[in-house]
Amino acid sequence: MTRLYFNHALLASGWAANVTLEINPSGTIVAIETDSDGENCDDRAEVALPGLPNVHSHAFQRALAGRAEVQGDGTDSFWTWRQVMYKFLERVTPTDLYAIACMAYCEMLEAGMTSVCEFHYLHHGPDGHPYGDIGEMAQAIGEAAKTTGIGLTFLPVFYAQSQFGGADPGPQQRRFINDPERFGKLLERIDAIAGSLADARVGIAPHSLRAVTPDSLNQILAFKPDGPLHIHIAEQTKEVDDCLAWSGQRPVEWLIDHVNVDRRWCLVHATHMSGPERRRLAASGAVAGLCPITEANLGDGTFDGVHFLAEGGRIAIGSDSNVLIDAAEELRTLEYSQRLRDQGRNLLSNPQKSTGRHLYDQVLAGGAQASGRHIGRLSVGNRGDILSLDTSHPALIGSNLDGWLDSWIFAANSSAVSDLWVGGRRLVSAGQHRDRQTLRAQYSQTIKRLSA
Ligand SMILES: [Zn+2]
Predict the structure, then answer these.
(1) 310-353: pLDDT as tens digits
(2) What is the CA radius of gyration of the chain?
(3) Which of 37, 128, 198, 428 is deepest in the core (most CB within 10 A)?
């Protein structure tokens, strides 16, 4: 058993003082003692928050961060960014993917994200043929999770078409492509990879409505009767227009009408919804997986969080393209997007709580649900995934309890995250992952080779 002591901890029941968490060797919280004297503890820190689940990542895209910020022919958009991304990934090997994912996961942990849902679609070799082991790229992701210690929900992506109506994929998409039968084999392999990790979960991710047909979508969903289901949806207005031209329906409307969208689903982005779509998604119990930094970087548009939360919708946060990995900035960007649009303040809020606390509570609950794992709350039976804030950070001095969350989210960044544990194992101390130097050297070599 590991016993961790905190002066203050945000438990499922609210803030408590002098808290000892007892965590078993497999990483699960088995006892919580409040008003404890902290004796015989293995480790201690000032404040314990549940670690933040990151519900949407393409780890390899971390290597592209900051490299697509030059105006091209004057019509740059999500679609021209995608061309830059396609060009880059032609050269990425399994060893490169391992090094890039290790760096991305290291940064996530240092930012306070204790788990990640990896939306993994870079499956095959550069010529589009599967590797000898169909799960070779997936193995690199699994190894990166093991090396860094981050909690993993593995989402193998099914990608078969390039456009609504079943258009054939383009040559630049060949590394992603499977038919349902081969996808089934990949899924089996990924189940085995995840089985070798501590508490990993496997789901399925149809890439987008563009990338599947109604038949293939139903076929692959039948492969997993349980586990999370994630899909990119309604990120761009062009995607909405193309879906309307194909089916006469908007993407979220089409999905809800043709598939049983329930609590297992995470609709990533869902940026462009009509009022009725938004209300139906809120009523479905599914999670909207918001990626505010990436959505701002790609110029996607603004999610209507004010109405969605008021209608009982569930939200979670993802780092998506990993252009910047910072949990506080994701939440701040989300709230600020609403303030800029509505010309108001404290919009994703609740009169009973501060905005930072309310936002954090929302994305913990939505994040745990979308991850399909026992995380997001410090309670018996859940994982010991914990972050501690540096209460002596200039932005946090003078705050306490919910105020620490407000100061971290609105006035600081990852530098306010001091320590972090996953499954009760300490991975971050004084803001640095225990293997940062090694992972950074490995990443540096990889990027130099890919950039040569
Ligand atoms: Zn994505």
Answers:
(1) 999 999 999 999 999 999 999 999 999 999 999 999 999 999 99
(2) 21
(3) 428
Three-state secondary structure call for residue 274? coil
Reported confidence tier of residue 114, pLDDT bands at 50, 70, 90: very high
CA of 99 to the centre of ligand 1 (A): 20
In the chain, domain spans: 2-49+380-438, 51-371
Per-residue b/e over 246-285, b at no fewer than 16 CB within 10 Å?
Answer: bbebbbbbbbbeebebeebbbbbbbbbbeeebbbbbbebe
For 352-383, what is each residue's pLDDT tens digit?
A: 999 999 999 999 999 999 999 999 999 999 99
Question: Active-site positions?
Answer: 269, 320
CA–CA gap between residue 125 and residue 174 (Å, rounded): 9
Ligand 1 center to 44 CA (angstroms): 37
5 touches 20 (CB < 8 A): yes
SS3 294: helix
* CATH class of the 51-371 domain in this structure: alpha beta
391 CA distance to ligand 1 middle (Å): 34
Tokens standing for 146? 């093991």
Domain 2-49+380-438 top-level CATH class: mainly beta
CA of 414 to the centre of ligand 1 (A): 22
436: left (phi over 0), alpha (psi -120 to 50) or beta: alpha
Burial class (CB in 10 A: 0-12, 13-18, 19+), 88: middle
pTM of the predicted structure, to 2 decimals: 0.97
Scanning the structure block, which residue is given the tokens 């690199």?
140
